[in-house]
Design a protein that fits this description.
- The chain is α/β, with parallel strands linked by helices.
- It has one domain: Rossmann fold.
- The chain is built from 8 helices and 7 strands; from the N terminus they run βαβαβαβαβαβαααβ.
- Strands 3-2-1-4-5-6-7 form a 7-stranded parallel sheet, sandwiched between helices.
- It is globular, with a radius of gyration of 17 Å.
Length: 247
């Protein structure tokens, strides 16, 4: 019986991954801060014949993360993999005009919240003594920078660093840890950013050799390979999904 945990699946990449994973896994555990948005996703996956558990989690709160894993422990579910697809863009402003509270909010979700998840997952997998896979979502801005979103850039660089450190520590136990770094994937979050920043989509697509933004479904396909049993040797990597922009 195979089981996958997806945290951050109410919309976008996580949502697409959950739908694509239905049928590939016997059980999906879905988690998001938006409990209401999980209900139709859970119902759709259940209709497809995959067992599905949905839990609201605020990853900024370590007790909420602990409650998620306690809920899983109360079932017969044995996780094989975890996809930590979490992140907010946060405030859009030059660093010298940015708000300290907005900085803390962004770091709390994108980096500290992710830390809570990775910490719990590695503890679970190593205690079980079985191979497993963890995949985090960083960003193209975890590999380089852009202007006006300093907290986002800093947090996503932190995701890459945390992933690499965790991969080194977990490798002897057979736990593989990677991060994906999507660029210009058309989701609700990037749509909102495009609405705030004039000309964003046009500039972005012109800088991509494939001359288009990627889709959540394309990212989901790659994510599921990294999370699946075919991946037996890739770990500690920050993998760009960018239409050739980083070439």
């Amino acid at each position: 019986m195979s089981a996958l945990l997806i945290v951050g699946c109410a919309t976008g990449i996580g949502h697409a991954t959950a739908l694509r994973a239905a049928g590939a896994y016997d059980t999906l555990v879905l988690s998001d801060i938006d409990a209401a948005a999980l209900v139709p996703l859970r119902d759709e996956i259940t209709r497809q014949g995959t067992r599905c558990l949905a839990e609201r989690t605020d990853i900024r709160d370590p007790s909420s993360v602990a409650a998620l894993f306690e809920s899983i422990a109360q079932t017969d579910i044995t996780l094989d993999a975890a996809f930590n697809n979490v992140g907010v863009i946060g405030e859009v402003a030059p660093v010298h005009q940015s708000n300290l509270d907005a900085w803390h909010d962004c770091i709390a979700t994108n980096l500290t919240g992710l830390y809570h998840l990775v910490r719990a997952e590695i503890a679970l997998f190593t205690k079980a003594g079985r191979s497993a896979r963890i995949l985090n979502t960083s960003s193209e801005y975890g590999l380089h920078a852009t202007d006006d979103v300093s907290a986002y850039v800093a947090s996503k660089h932190g995701v890459v660093g945390l992933t690499r450190a965790a991969a080194l520590e977990a490798a002897p136990a057979g736990v593989l840890v990677n991060t994906i770094c999507p660029r210009a994937i058309y989701t609700g979050m990037t749509q909102r950013y495009a609405e705030e920043v004039e000309g964003y989509r046009e500039r972005t697509e012109s800088a991509i050799p494939m001359r288009r933004m990627g889709t959540a479904e394309e990212v989901a396909a790659f994510a599921l390979w990294l999370l699946g049993p075919e991946n037996t040797y890739v770990t500690g990597q920050a993998l760009a999904i960018d239409g050739g922009a980083g070439a």
